[in-house]
User: Fold these one by one.
Assistant:
Number 1:
Amino acid sequence: MKPTRRSWAEPFKIKVVEPVKMTTHEQRRRAIAEAGYNTFLLRSEDVYIDLLTDSGTSAMSDRQWAGMMIGDEAYAGSRNFYHLEEVVKAYYGYRYLIPTHQGRGAEHIISRVLIKPGDVIPGNMYFTTTRLHQELAGGRFVDVIIPEAHDPASLHPFKGNVDLDRLESVIREHGPQKIPYVSLAATVNMAGGQPISLENLRKVREITARHGIRIILDATRLAENAYFIQQREPGQQERPIAEIAREICSLTDGCTMSAKKDALANIGGFLAVNDPEIYDEARNLVVVFEGLHTYGGMAGRDMEAVARGIEEAFQDDHIRARVGQVLYLGEKLREWGIPIVMPIGGHGVFLDAKAFLPHLPQEVYPAQALAAAIYEDSGVRAMERGIVSAGRNRETGEENKPKLELVRLTIPRRVYTQAHMDVVAESVLAVYEERERVRGLRMVYEPRYLRFFQARFEQL
Ligand SMILES: *Cc1c(COP(=O)(O)O)cnc(C)c1O
């Protein structure tokens, strides 16, 4: 029999492997209890398939590893900095580069440079570190993402889009002088890796330009966003990913970037801007918080790995396979009727914990409990993106109650095979079939900042 469709596989072959430890159910039951039911507190050794995050966990290519060997570890003026600068100009198009140790270093600096106490920063849904740095600089984040982004069942193809009327009304309410910039993410991590469309971005540009307001892009997963535009937006099918990405950047005034995602590196980040005055300020601050302006907290070899990673990140074959693997896992879960955020995002599959565990109210942390249950079942490590991640209101001290209560299965780039994805899907199904046995949690330790990283829980 001839197959009815042609199979498709990753555009690479495996040259080095890292063996992983296999654990028993009893070992995992103990490990997750000792970790306070927080997957961030597990030892990686006790994890079989690690879908905690796609941040810094990607597999580098032989070309990137070769680049590490030509790291120029000079304190000042490393050759790898100049290579990175050249690559950032070529792929992102901004005029000035400020390297940082990772994305939050760039967020810290741009927030300090642009935000004054009392300012308001509209954005397409918050990201944890981005919003915290805006707040620490005295600003207040205001969500202007379209309402569909908060609805896990909505099939809107661009759930990262800005609600233009809402943006206009925020500008009217506060006045443009109170808005240093609009903070735009592509893709939107907290909405489930959802993209913003070119059409929407062009309109945001029109509105902000009318009021003299800048746009700062969170370019962490720009390549994935560009892929969705190529696949979904009318008239974009023939354009290379790199070209679409460049156009996105051209509609903004600068970007913060975590090189631990798209850029296929284990550490690194940068801030890039067009305005020479902002650059000057940022270059002054980077030496205080990160390192000299030609390394910003990165080793020379890391800057080389990032530069080469960016060149690989915008290759169409790479990004199709990367997002393709995420879609493979998501479609499998959906076929089995497991509630996930739709459409499937670019960097992970998000389980809808509210629908998965309807017997658990949000107060007993259903997503946190579900991530722990999946670990216990199979050693697959996921993470909570719900009420624990959302933290507390800084003024009232009350818990923020996000509409989305999710568990994120995040896929590292080029690390796992399709067989690993099958194991993950089957584990989620096994927990789903016994879902009424998953118990809620009580928080017994709560850190003051970004509590999801270190909070501890007990089973109810
Ligand atoms: C990871 C991430 C950041 C922060 O970057 P780090 O390198 O972890 O400091 C910022 N924005 C988004 C969308 C991210 O996913």
Note: The pocket of pyridoxal-5'-phosphate is lined by residues 55, 102-104, 127, 129-130, 185, 189, 218, 220, 258, 260-261, 269 (CB under 6 Å).
Number 2:
Amino acid sequence: MSLSQGRAYLAIPGPSVMPDAVLQAMHRASPNIYEGELHDLTHSLVPDLKHVAMTDADVAIYIGNGHAAWEAALSNVLSKGDTVLVLATGRFCVGWGEMAAGMGALVETIDYGDEAPIDLAEVEEVLANDKDGRIKAILAVHVDTSTSVKNDIAGLRGVIDQVGHPALLMADCIASLGCDRFEMDAWGVDVMVSGCQKGLMTPAGVSFVWFNDKANAARGDCVTSYWDWRPRVSPEIYFQYFDGTAPTHHLYGLRTALDMIKAEGLDHVFARHEKLAQVIWAAFEQWSTHGPMRLNIADPAARSHAVTSVEIGSPNGDALRKWCEHQCGLTLGIGLGRSPADAYFRIGHMGHVNAHMIMGALGTIDAGLKALDIPHGNGALSAAASALAMRA
Ligand SMILES: *Cc1c(COP(=O)(O)O)cnc(C)c1O
């Protein structure tokens, strides 16, 4: 008997759970796009988008998903034939690099596989050997959503500076922004991309590129007028923000989402995600004591607070996902970019997520393991409750 009626929990790593307040803000007639409230609202987003990225850098808004922001960022800095260093820790950085190659860049990849973060010592060596400074940009993903690895972006800037290499540091924070702490200016990131449908809790369709003066000055010849970030950050007329009609309803939703983040406080948002991640890990560590279950990233310091990737053996990943969704209304993420994909699943715990949702998701998974006779260690829910009850 299915018990899935009631409010579902979409626990995939994007799109994330949308707050009712965001949906209600979008539920309105189309506004006047020529003047008035929408213009004021759009201007008001800019300082708050800088705040969530902890930066004074410029931010350009694009009507498009994360892939659009990837292309926007690359096209503004690259020329055909430029060399790009890709630090791959999962499917997403590989994909960003493929896009750079498609635009005519020479892509060099250091692949760390699917279970480990970037090795900073190795990057330092590669940069030290690049005596002529051929590498124009370094592409890194802060949190790779396919593996749930979290990379040390500040440490990466440290080794770039150590070597004195001039390359731009470009970071993908599509999964991490508003979830895992990220400080664009303090960490020395030149270009950062993100989208609105993960930590920013808004329906997919708007994305952002933050860039500093160094990145702006690095301008290559790949950029075409639609992707050009310059008019978007200093629009003389309102329509230059978007190079056409504004994504009106997304802007209302985003305004509300940013208000929610401000009201909670960015530090509290980060702390909430960290605590909930610890609760999840506590359960998985117990389940993993017996049977096929294993957290994909062994080192807690290299784990995201927004998404968790789990290996559970083929075809248990798919079987568990189906059971949780159809029996209980909990949708888990697929084993994206992994082989065999049905040996993995992921939990998205980004954005509008609280403790009872996480405890419900863990309880559902525990029931699924039992229903499907997947061997597992006991005591996971008790361990999760203890982690939740622990102070600080
Ligand atoms: C989701 C995601 C993307 C892709 O974003 P889309 O909106 O699906 O195009 C890229 N990088 C990371 C790290 C992501 O999590």
Note: Residues 14, 65-67, 92, 141, 144-145, 172, 174-175, 195, 204 surround pyridoxal-5'-phosphate (CB under 6 Å).
